[in-house]
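Regression test case RT-17, inverse folding.

Input:
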């Protein structure tokens, strides 16, 4: 499954949860159990409510009755007691609390990973280490519930994610460090690499929690431009009211089509004009030997200034292109590559073994529009004494009705 997020109004942790649960309501009960398992005290209440702004309908996710609660680590006697909105909760203690809780281990690790992203950027902003970072607004149970809930939903769906251009926002936001320009420094670091637009509407449009979730999802990758079947959608509302715009995060979930004879592959192409032929040959063979590489095509071409160059095209498994790109840079002297994902059409193929003139030969069978064809592996007839003998073996294989996986004889 692939999920695309459309941040019409922006992205926040509660908006993410509301949008996902609007699309996948069967996950609500398990998510609420997970948040409670993380240690959410009984006075607090998580609720998913229907909501409408008179334009759209969807869901809102609320964490209520927090005013009298201590932060999670204060509740366990780890820090001095303080009012909820003034809690300073060290990252290391939140991490320990989540890892020691009754949360399923994969969910706990994912929640810690989201918090760790926030700790890393806060440390960069303030010249500290992640272990030294204390969360202020993000140390309370409302933020922890958002991150644990998001971790549970991400783990349950097992989807890939992308997000369209994010609204920049403008103005200032009040934080424990005073007034900061939007987006605040830590949020801006988390959003490096994402597409940003300015739609002219002021305010904080992507919260630190929302940015950390997007970064954890790796949602800044471009989505593949191919046909998918739309499975369902969801709409999650935020708490603000925006002028002339619904403050929603919209979700579209797509099921990948499992069509026989079709798949998707990565195509990496580049030229090399300054590598010794014998060294390039070694590099190409190393690329071809990789499990994530399907084939390598090599051909002569003319480059700039009439130089003779080598054009390389590497075919790799979908989703593994980045690793193959790194290998191309390691094995060749190229300074840049072109990368795309394409749809591939395949004939139905099977393999078999036949015996011809007492010699076992491997054969590939293909179901072509005009009928089935058979082709012998060239390595298996390489020891034939001459071209006439090799041609005779090929003709005999092509005339045989052998079934894949079974031995036939001639």
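Golden output:
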């Amino acid at each position: 499954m692939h999920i695309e997020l459309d941040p019409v109004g922006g992205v926040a942790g509660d908006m993410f949860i509301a949008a996902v649960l609007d699309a996948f309501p069967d996950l609500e009960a398990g998510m609420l159990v997970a948040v409670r398992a993380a240690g959410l005290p009984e006075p607090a209440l998580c609720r998913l409510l229907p909501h409408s702004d008179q334009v759209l309908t969807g869901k809102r996710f609320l964490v209520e009755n927090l005013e009298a609660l201590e932060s999670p680590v204060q509740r366990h006697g780890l820090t001095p007691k303080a009012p909820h909105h003034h809690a300073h909760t060290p990252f290391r203690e939140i991490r320990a609390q989540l890892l020691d809780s009754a949360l399923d281990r994969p969910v706990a690790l994912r929640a810690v990973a989201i918090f760790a992203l926030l700790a890393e950027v806060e440390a960069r902003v303030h010249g500290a280490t992640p272990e030294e970072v204390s969360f202020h607004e993000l140390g309370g149970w409302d933020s922890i519930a958002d991150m644990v809930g998001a971790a549970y939903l991400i783990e349950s769906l097992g989807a890939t994610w992308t997000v369209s251009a994010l609204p920049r926002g403008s103005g200032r936001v009040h934080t424990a460090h005073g007034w900061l320009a939007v987006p605040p420094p830590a949020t801006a670091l988390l959003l490096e690499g994402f597409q940003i637009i300015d739609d002219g509407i002021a305010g904080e449009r992507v919260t630190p929690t929302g940015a950390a979730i997007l970064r954890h999802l790796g949602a800044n990758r471009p989505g593949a431009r191919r046909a998918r079947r739309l499975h369902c959608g969801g709409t999650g509302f935020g708490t603000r009211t925006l002028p002339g715009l619904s403050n929603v995060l919209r979700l579209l979930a797509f099921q990948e089509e499992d069509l026989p004879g079709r798949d998707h592959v990565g195509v990496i192409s580049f030229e090399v004009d300054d590598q010794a032929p014998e060294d390039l040959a070694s590099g190409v063979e190393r690329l071809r030997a990789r499990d994530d590489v399907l084939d390598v095509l090599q051909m002569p071409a003319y480059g700039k200034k009439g130089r003779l160059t080598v054009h390389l095209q590497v075919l790799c498994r979908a989703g593994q292109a980045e690793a193959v790109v790194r290998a191309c840079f390691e094995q060749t002297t190229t300074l840049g590559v072109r990368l795309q994902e394409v749809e591939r059409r395949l004939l139905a193929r099977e393999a078999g073994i036949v015996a011809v003139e007492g010699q076992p030969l491997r054969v590939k069978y293909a179901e072509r529009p005009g009928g089935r064809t058979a082709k012998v592996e060239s390595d298996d007839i390489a020891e034939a004494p001459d071209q006439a003998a090799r041609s005779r073996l090929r003709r005999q294989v092509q005339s045989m009705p052998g079934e894949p996986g079974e031995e036939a004889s001639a």
